[in-house]
Specification:
heterodimer, A: mainly alpha, Methane Monooxygenase Hydroxylase, Chain G, domain 1, two-stranded antiparallel sheet, B: mainly alpha
Chain lengths: 201, 264
């Protein structure tokens, strides 16, 4: 395998033969990741990558992300939900293009905000699967937020997964017992479950 | 009587000076042979044990690049740049951190399963070997790191950890793309119910109990302070709209069955 890994001194990229690429897709992935990291380190200019702190966080990207987010919120406000989804998508794409050694905490804060907004926009455009996906990822990142349970619950409800929706609402309520919206949605969901079971009076 | 009491002289066996030396030599050679065979067998069993993780391509890549870097036969301009090596070492450390964290996560599970007899000695040994191997891998990375720049270790591992977390997050985001289709297939019947019925739902089915901007703003408070005010303005207009939709749709159910669901 050693002889099959090529190094291009001009671009400073590593590559493997196309045969090996198809044979070992994981190796190809690792090489791509390594090339990305190399370019990021070179672009950084420092001898070694700096320690990630809020000060070293790339603020230019943050500004662009903020602008896109604001654009998305504006579009949402005007009822242009597809447009707002597009804006949030671009912003998320920008976040994924940050340097790998950028502060994780800063990245996750930006991302969670955008995912929340995008999940809401998806719910408005009735793309419930996508909304479910976003809400699910959000719950993976911050479990103790009742609003995220509400998002996933609503998506589940409209996907016809009423039991899952009920579980989501109840879990959300375990974090905030008096959450009006969760309580209201839970009542609706329980009614729906009764209706589905033929117990509706 | 005198004849009876005569003690026979003990027969002295004459042995060579080399005899004890030969004895010690034989014992030692047997011991050495045993040790070599025992070690070889142990090494073979270690080699035969199946690793818990897949092949570590990052470590292989780093070794390969390092060999190229120190190879005098390759012209200097064709040898890998030092930053490529540093990046490769960082990625090797990222993989080591990821594996160590996975092993640490599973530690209590392995112990519990082994204590309850749910996994055999072989698997537990496999786990222990992997644990030891990861320790050695980390030690080697520290040594390698010091060879590039003295004192880099202090900042090396925090950076590697951050890369590890960022990559994990990106992996999850990437996984979301395909997941949507998989979920659609899994819940096909439900998707068929909701998706094509889009235009109908507006008229007949309950209006979407979409999370209004109130919730969005609620979370914005925690994360981005600046946008808080803006979205709060939206809140009022959107809340009205949502309340109306709820009244018209899901509210119908409520009127009939308010509180009934809760009892259950």
């Amino acid at each position: 395998m050693e002889a099959l890994i090529n190094y291009d001194s001009k671009s400073k990229n590593l590559s493997i033969s196309s045969e090996l690429e198809s044979e070992l897709p994981h190796l190809k992935l690792e090489i791509d990741q390594l090339n990305t990291l190399t370019h990021e380190i070179i672009a950084n200019g420092a001898d070694v990558p700096p320690v990630p702190t809020p000060e070293t966080f790339n603020k230019d990207i943050s500004k662009m992300v903020r602008k896109l987010y604001e654009g998305g919120v504006q579009a949402f406000r005007l009822g242009k939900f597809e447009e707002s989804v597009k804006q949030f998508n671009i912003a998320i794409e920008m976040i994924t293009r940050r340097a790998k050694f950028d502060s994780f905490q800063g990245t996750i804060q930006e991302l969670s905000l955008l995912l929340m907004s995008r999940a809401d926009a998806y719910l408005k455009t009735k793309e419930y699967l996508k909304a479910y996906n976003d809400a699910d990822l959000l719950l993976g990142m911050m479990m103790n937020t009742p609003e995220n349970f509400l998002r996933r619950g609503v998506a589940n409800y409209f996907l016809g997964n009423y039991e899952a929706a009920r579980a989501d609402y109840q879990r959300g309520l375990s974090f905030e017992e008096d959450h009006d919206r969760l309580n209201a949605e839970l009542t609706i969901c329980l009614d729906k479950i009764l209706e589905e079971n033929g117990d509706y009076l | 009587m005198a004849e009876e009491t005569a003690i026979p002289e003990p027969e002295i066996i004459k042995i060579s000076v080399f005899t004890p030396l030969i004895y010690v030599g034989v014992v030692l050679s047997v011991f050495v042979a045993f040790s070599i065979i025992y070690r070889r067998r142990r090494l073979n069993t270690l080699r035969q044990t199946e690793p818990l993780f897949k092949e570590n391509y990052n470590a292989i890549l780093y070794q390969n690049l390092k060999e190229q870097y120190h190879n005098q036969n390759i012209p200097k301009d064709q040898r890998p740049h030092e930053k490529v090596l540093k990046a490769a070492l960082l990625r090797r450390a990222v993989e080591a951190i990821r594996r160590s964290m996975k092993l640490k996560e599973c530690e209590s599970i392995f112990n519990k399963l082994y204590q309850n007899g749910l996994i055999g000695d072989e698997i537990f040994k496999q786990y222990e070997i992997q644990l030891k191997f990861q320790e050695l891998e980390l030690k080697e990375i520290v040594q390698e790191c010091e060879s590039y720049k003295k004192g880099w270790v202090q900042t090396f591992f925090p950076v590697a950890q951050e890369i590890c977390f960022n990559e994990a997050l990106r992996r999850r985001l990437k996984a979301m793309e395909g997941r949507e289709e998989a979920l659609a297939e899994l819940w096909q019947c439900f998707v068929e119910k909701t998706e094509p019925a889009k235009p109908k739902t507006k008229k007949t089915s309950p209006a979407p109990a979409v999370v209004n901007e109130k919730e969005t703003t609620g979370e914005n408070k925690a994360s981005v302070e600046d946008t808080k005010e803006e979205v709060e303005e939206d809140e009022e207009s959107d809340e009205e709209a949502n309340n109306e939709t709820q009244k018209t749709s899901t509210g119908q159910n409520k009127k009939k069955k308010k509180g009934k669901g809760k009892k259950k």
